[in-house]
Amino acid sequence: MAKRVHQVWKGSNIFFLNGRLIFGPDARSLIVTLLLILVPVVIFCAFVVINLIDEFPSNNPGYAILATTIIFTIYVLVLLLLTSARDPGIVPRNSHPPEEEFCYESSAPIEAGGRPTPSLQLPRTKEVTVNGLPVKVKYCDTCMLYRPPRCSHCSICDNCVERFDHHCPWVGQCIGKRNYRYFFLFVSSLALLCIFVFSMSAVYMKFLLDDYGTVWKAMKESPASVVLMAYCFIALWFVGGLTGFHLYLIGTNQTTYENFRYRADNRRNVYDQGCLNNFLEVFCTKIEPSRNNFHGYVQEKVPRPPKVPTRDAEADDSGGSRRAKVEDDLEIGDDILKLSQRRDFEEGGDVRSRGSDGLPRKSPDVELGLGLELQEPASLSGRHPSSLGRRNGN
């Protein structure tokens, strides 16, 4: 039975609804985030907004505050879902390294003959052009690809993510090219919600202060307002500070990863197009569709056809085989020469070591090599039967 892509996915992601929703491996932290948002809102609506309706001469302002709180909370939760439940820009993995990037280099001689063998070398980096300037991109051993510019491999999700910003444990997902806009809107909207709840709680405390005359009595009358004001004040330092930091990153066209890693290098930012264009790029450009169809079926890959060797490669192979054959023939000829000399020494009176006048004669140097290999069988066949019989007798 055919399997879907999310069933054989090699990353650490968690999928729901047959791959339509994708989360990070720490998706359980979303429960904590939801509680931190919903619990204060419920307390605010139940103990502050209901009482504010009676404080106004007409009930319309109180109901407007209640409706605004509910709508604003739903908007924040939708942004949280769009941030954490979608593909942040995952680059699909390769099933094999890019063969077009291989270069052949001669490695150290490891064979007995001392001949170097060619080895495949894959460059760790290569240069690409971005806005007319060279930028180095790295090779990812896990995904077996050269990462696009501004792409990084997330060690938590185990994926290469385009325009990788950071991995946020509060939303349980990587923040990248396809969900950075929703992440910023979520953080900034949450900061505005904190300001709204803090302000309305302070307004209710003002009404109580007018009624009871002292702060202490007003606090005893509505402890929920005091708790909400303290909670929103503390939370605003985090989400408000995060909003300001990302406003700076958007204005300078940086990511959190680039800011923390290359801040001390004083590198020129090749992606900076001016403050206005940087904001337009984040908020006014169309979000590209996902490069992964997690809901689709896995397609069987057609095996690659074998490479046809070129003429140059054939010439190199033939030349190498000829050289290897000549070296082997020389070695064989040298071994045969040593065997023949040993036999001549044992026989003492072999006719091959004497001339026509019966005196000893040294073999010339020109007998080395292939000529000896070809002449030796003839000399052995020309031996006199009596000499063979004499050696058998001895």
UniProtKB/TrEMBL annotation:
Coiled coil: none annotated. Its EC number is 2.3.1.225. GO terms for molecular function: protein-cysteine S-palmitoyltransferase activity. GO terms for biological process: protein targeting to membrane. InterPro entries: Palmitoyltrfase_DHHC (IPR001594), PFA4/ZDH16/20/ERF2-like (IPR039859). It is found in: Endomembrane system. It catalyses: L-cysteinyl-[protein] + hexadecanoyl-CoA = S-hexadecanoyl-L-cysteinyl-[protein] + CoA. It comes from the Eukaryota. Keywords: Acyltransferase, Membrane, Transferase, Transmembrane, Transmembrane helix. GO terms for cellular component: endoplasmic reticulum; Golgi apparatus. The chain crosses the membrane at residues 30-50, 62-83, 182-204, 224-251. Residues 297-326, 341-394 are annotated as: Disordered. It is an enzyme of class 2 (transferase). It is a multi-pass membrane protein. Residues 138-261 form the Palmitoyltransferase DHHC domain. Residues 341-365 have a biased composition (Basic and acidic residues). The DHHC domain is required for palmitoyltransferase activity. Belongs to the DHHC palmitoyltransferase family. This is S-acyltransferase. It comes from Actinidia chinensis var. chinensis. The lineage of its organism: Eukaryota, Viridiplantae, Streptophyta, Embryophyta, Tracheophyta.
